[in-house]
Specification:
Chain lengths: 140, 468
């Protein structure tokens, strides 16, 4: 379904920040399955700085960060900045290749889930549903 | 006493090298200088032997004593064992030695220790990429913790009985590594307070953030896996988990968390933020209910008995901001000072009228909302005082006691009430977006066209909004 034909009120943005296309491809495959049926995902790909600016004043938004071992410090900076700019955003970390110790480091920031493979997105379905249900409650 | 190999081959190698190398004996006097030293210093090095080379020791006016003193290691070498120094020896008889990096090494201990020194160019000061990354990560974590510490400090400021009690409880919590339950409405600083307590009570210990309401047992396992892995590998390992919204966590996830806490009793610590006061948690969940409930239909049923017992070990609660009226001027001023110090504005104080407005406002979002208001006011005010007109619309337009009485409410239709509420939301969104309608529409999750239609309808209907 073309997003332009959809009521903007049911669109929920996803922002993917990665260097390749692994996660955007996986998200396009699985997003329709894991989103609540009444909501429509709008998927964006953005570099780090653009992702942070998109999060400013954003409504319910899910950010998928690709974190790699050789860029862990920069990723930690992004996670912290995003948490301060948009405490209501849902941050998911794609952590393929991280050691347990490195995952322990990023767990100290405000992330909601860590996954290793695109198919792991399916297991996040309950969390995604709860997240959007919770963000709708705050309008009351 | 054991003896080493013959020294002559080494001496020959050292003399063949052009690297300046020297040795200082236990008495602090030069006992060896290589041929490279002679080249570097432009001195017959035999004339330097037995001269004192100790940092800070008195030096005669003899130029050779001055050169020997310049070759001394920095103070503290005897403790550290190694040191680096850039040495610029004094000129001697028209010869000026170029400054060189020197690495000092203490060999042996106590009264028999000698010092070896090598001069040259070294690349060992530059940390490798991995070490640089580790340093950067540490700096990032420290900055993250400092931010929480600043928020915790602000939230607990004040002279009211509530503020004093809060600070007292924090001091007790910081002095012991205990499970803690924080109870307070959203925006009362629970997460930052617990972060600060963790930093003080268990410095260096890993802390895992968990978003309680979003968890199920599988996701909780995945989230806590790094800590569980560490705890399973070593009996000395410890970790803490900070769970936001523990009282909204699904039942099966609560059970799983309780099980992990029991398994790693004393080593896995729980820091929990609950949105309601402990007295409101009511009866524990009926544990005979085992059927799984679709997540769309999950209802909050309170905390399970095990978790109530855990977080009852040490509880901290913070009242809503409207109940700490005495503290509001000080809290607002504290936030103003912090933001001004970081360069966000020039205003130094609030006008009396502005403080009155802040005190009267009910602050439904508590400290978070006060912080947003201070940030807004600081950006709006050009002078050194924040006036009422610099405050957000919702605050400066609030009028207490103008709420309709129950009788009038009984005559107000649902449609009218919804329309008034919608109008207020739109005004607040426009205020927040500085009048930018597209941005306001985005914040409200509606299209710009729909927002414009709503604004038109409200203007035509002329229905008074709350607070005006």
């Amino acid at each position: 379904m073309s997003v332009s034909l959809v009521d903007p009120g049911v669109i929920r943005p996803w922002i993917v920040c990665e260097t390749g296309t692994r996660w955007i491809t996986g998200l396009r495959r699985f997003a329709p399955e894991i989103m609540p049926s009444e909501l429509v995902p709008q998927i964006h790909v953005a570099p780090r700085s653009k992702t942070l600016s998109m999060l400013t004043h954003a409504g319910p938004t899910i950010v998928l960060w690709e974190v790699q071992p050789d860029g862990l410090a920069v990723s930690c900076e992004c996670l912290a900045q995003a948490a301060m700019l948009a405490p209501g955003a849902l941050q998911i970390v794609a952590a393929a290749g991280l050691t347990m110790r490195e995952r322990l480091v990023i767990a100290g920031f405000r992330i909601s889930a860590t996954i290793e493979h695109p198919e792991d997105l399916v297991s996040l379905k309950p969390m995604i549903h709860r997240y959007f249900a919770r963000s709708a409650q705050h309008l009351d | 006493m054991a003896s080493g190999t013959k020294i002559r081959p080494l001496a020959r190698l050292l003399d063949a090298s052009d690297a300046p190398l020297w040795a200082i004996g236990p008495s602090g006097r030069l006992v060896y200088l290589s041929a490279g030293c002679a080249e570097w210093l432009g001195i017959d090095v035999d004339s330097l032997l037995d001269r004192r080379s100790v940092a800070g020791a008195p030096v005669s006016t003899d130029p050779l004593d001055c050169v020997a003193a310049a070759l001394s290691p920095p103070q503290g070498l005897s403790t550290r064992g190694s040191a680096s120094l850039r040495i610029s020896p004094p000129a001697f008889e028209d010869h000026r030695a170029i400054p060189l990096e020197v690495r000092f090494l203490r060999v042996g201990e106590g009264d028999s220790a000698i010092v070896l020194a090598v001069a040259g160019s070294f690349d060992d000061r530059t940390p490798d990429a991995e070490l640089k990354d580790a340093i950067a990560i540490r700096q990032r974590l420290d900055a993250w913790r400092k931010r929480h510490a600043a928020i915790a400090s602000t939230v607990t400021a004040g002279n009211s009985a509530v503020a004093k009690r809060l600070r007292r409880r924090m001091r007790v919590a910081a002095a012991t590594r205990s499970d803690i339950g924080f109870f307070g409405a959203p925006g009362t600083g629970g997460e930052s307070i617990l972060n600060r307590i963790h930093e003080l009570s268990a410095p260096g210990e890993n802390l895992i953030n968990v978003d309680g309401p979003l968890m199920d047992s599988e996701l909780l396992d995945a989230t806590l896996m790094p800590a569980v892995h560490q705890l399973a590998e070593s009996r000395e390992a410890r970790a803490s988990t900070l769970v936001r919204g523990l009282d909204e966590m699904p039942y099966e996830a609560q059970q799983r968390l309780a099980s992990l806490l029991d398994t790693f009793s004393g080593r896995l610590r729980l820091l929990a933020v609950c949105g309601r006061q402990i007295a409101e948690l009511g009866e524990p969940i009926d544990e005979s209910i085992n059927e799984s409930i679709p997540f769309e239909e999950e209802e909050h049923r309170g905390l399970c008995t095990e978790l109530i017992e855990v977080i009852s070990a040490l509880t901290i609660s913070n009242r809503e901001l409207a109940e700490r009226v005495d503290d509001i001027p000080l809290l607002a001023t504290s936030m103003l000072d912090a933001r001004r110090a970081s360069g966000e504005g020039v205003a130094e104080r609030f006008s009396r009228a502005a403080l009155d407005a802040l005190v009267i406002y009910p602050w439904p979002r508590n400290h978070d909302e006060l912080d947003d208001a201070v940030r807004h006011a600081l950006r709006t005010a050009a002078g050194n005082a924040i006036a009422v007109e610099h405050l957000p619309l919702a605050i400066r337009s609030y009028r207490p006691g103008e709420q309709p009485s129950r009788g009038i409410h009984a005559n107000l239709s649902l449609d009218d009430a919804v329309q008034r509420y919608e109008h207020r939301l739109i005004l607040e969104a426009l205020e927040s977006a500085d009048g930018n309608r597209a941005e306001a529409a985005r914040q409200l999750g509606i299209s710009r066209a729909r927002l414009l239609r709503r604004i038109d309808e409200h203007n035509r209907t002329d229905l008074p909004s709350d607070g005006e």
